[in-house]
Amino acid sequence: MLTVDFSRFPLAPGDRVLDLGCGAGRHAFECYRRGARVVALDRNASEIREVAEWFEAMREAGEAPPGASATALEGDAHALPFPTDSFDAVIVSEVLEHIHEDKSVLAELARVLRPGGRFAVTVPRYGPERVCWALSDAYHEVEGGHIRIYRSDQLLARVREAGLRPYGSHHAHALHAPYWWLKCAFGVDNEKALPVRAYHQLLVWDIMRKPLATRLAERALDPLIGKSFVAYATKPHLPATDGSAAEPAAGESAGERV
């Protein structure tokens, strides 16, 4: 299940991509399939081992085109082990809400992104996340849990402060918001509650089958209750000066600016 929309975040074969806080690797795998040279980085050693195993399985199965490459690394988001301007694209999905010093992480991501490169960030959306916090303390008061809820304008301000220029945004995963509300209402660790089990089965069916009805329903509901807020930005070739805007990125019109 992808949160980043690759029609808004285009990749070219051979692009060097960093997926920071890759988790189970969903976005890294998609970038690899698209022919990128992917680095998936996470602080969780066990997840990195699993991602590396999946990369190898994909390689053996021929799922990635010639020229693509994939590496899984354990690392610190506050001190990335990469040279400045070394990536064509950077993804950080459902990560920043876990990190106290989010500004320093965004600064590091902006540092390693090359001028003209693209940046995608996703976080839980304010409204649906507020409902979860109201229904359950256990949802967020856990080690490594969510420490803040972003408003969209707050996240975009953070992105701009890091020296990046937003060019678009949207919401995603509307069908998943009610599932998390149910989990919070019945207990986040209670997998036996009938409403939770039934809704989970619906989501699995939707992910596996991708029926038109649920695709259309989610598209209509995303602006209202989409679980994730997704924003895209570029790194300007030259810093903007007072009274003048940086030139648009390739493929961007003035109307796409946020």
Distance between the termini: 26 Å
Q: Give the count of helical stretches.
A: 8
Task: Please list the strands of the largest sheet in the order they lie side by side.
Answer: 3-2-1-4-5-7-6
Briefly note the CATH topology name of the domain at 76-235: Rossmann fold
Order of helices and strands: EHEHEEHEHHEHHHE
CATH class of the domain at 76-235: Alpha Beta
List how many beta strands DSSP finds: 7
Query: Helix fraction?
Result: 25-40%
Envelope shape: globular
Category by helix and strand content: alpha/beta
Average pLDDT? 92
By CATH, the architecture of the domain at 76-235 is named 3-Layer(aba) Sandwich
Radius of gyration (CA) equals: 19 Å
Main β sheet profile:
7 strands, mixed
- The CATH homologous superfamily of the domain at 76-235 corresponds to Vaccinia Virus protein VP39
Strand portion, in percent? 15-25%
- Low-pLDDT stretches are 243-258
Protein topology:
Blueprint (H helix, E strand, L loop, with lengths): L15 E5 L5 H8 L3 E6 L2 H17 L7 E6 L12 E7 L8 H11 E12 L1 H10 L16 H10 L3 E8 L3 H11 L7 H16 L2 H14 L2 E7 L24
Parallel strand pairs: 1-2, 1-4, 2-3, 4-5
Antiparallel strand pairs: 5-7, 6-7
Helix pairs in contact: 4-6, 6-7
In short:
This is Methyltransferase. The protein has helices spanning 26-33, 45-61, 102-112, 126-135, 152-161, 176-186, 194-209, 212-225; strands at 16-20, 37-42, 69-74, 87-93, 113-124, 165-172, 228-234.
